[in-house]
C-alpha cells in the first residue's frame, strides 16, 4: 500500500493527487489540505475556499488583505 506523504500512514484506501506534474499520495483529505492548501499571508490559516490573491500573495479574506495594506480586493460573497 502507498504511504501518505503527509503523515506516513499505510492505508488501503489512499488516493493520489497530481499537482504541477508531481504526484502526492494521501490517506485523508485532512492530510491533503495540510500539504497542498495555501496559507493566508496575514493569519496563517489554510485557505480551503477561494481566498484572495494579489501579485502571488494569498489571503483567506478581505479583512486579512486589508490588514496587510491591500485595499483594492473584495470577497466575492
From TrEMBL:
Protein name as it appears in the record: Metallothionein
Domain of life: Bacteria
Amino acid at each position: 500500500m502507498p504511504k501518505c506523504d503527509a503523515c506516513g500512514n499505510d492505508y488501503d484506501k489512499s488516493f493520489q493527487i497530481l499537482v504541477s506534474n508531481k504526484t502526492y499520495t494521501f490517506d485523508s483529505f485532512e492530510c491533503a489540505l495540510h500539504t497542498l492548501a495555501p496559507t493566508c499571508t496575514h493569519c496563517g490559516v489554510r485557505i480551503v475556499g477561494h481566498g484572495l490573491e494579489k501579485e502571488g500573495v494569498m489571503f483567506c479574506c478581505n479583512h486579512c488583505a486589508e490588514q496587510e495594506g491591500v485595499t483594492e480586493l473584495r470577497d466575492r460573497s
